[in-house]
Amino acid sequence: MKSTRIEIVRGDITKQKVDAIVNAANSTLLGGGGVDGAIHCAAGPSLLAECRTLGGCPTGEARITAGHELPARYIIHAVGPVWQGGGAGEAALLASCYRAAIQLAVRHHCREIAFPAICCGVYGYPWHDAARVCLQTVRDVLENEPALQLARWVLFGDEIFEAWQKCWLEVLGDDAR
After folding, report:
1. Reported pTM
2. How many CA atoms within 13 Å lie on the side-chain side of 72?
3. 6-176 — its CATH code?
């Protein structure tokens, strides 16, 4: 699905030919499972070496590294919250890590950015809730960031892709046409 500046696709984020991809990182930035592990594996060992110099990243924030062996110029490591039922500020922290990722992308003159579904794996964030927070946040941020031309979500499976599609019209309304 695609609007003017936001799209949702099925695929592998490590194969995206965009200025920056976003890693669903943990606070150590030293790799993990899921998307984080796949990005570290595809980028090669030099990514881990660079991440060791960053000193970690708090939840709700983001850090940037080179793309290393990926087709993207940059990797933006965004740390989202672990789902604790919705009453521990998870939505605000998730929105914050998306805003931080976009700010880094703009600061590094990126025109296209690709996101995974941050927190929707082992962090347990309900997919529809995450999609709503993320799509609203990015839509709102893009209104004030004309230099960033495309925000793409790259979702690895059919089930999560369909969950995000269901949220698409709810959030983007007429902008989704």
Report:
1. 0.94
2. 30
3. 3.40.220.10
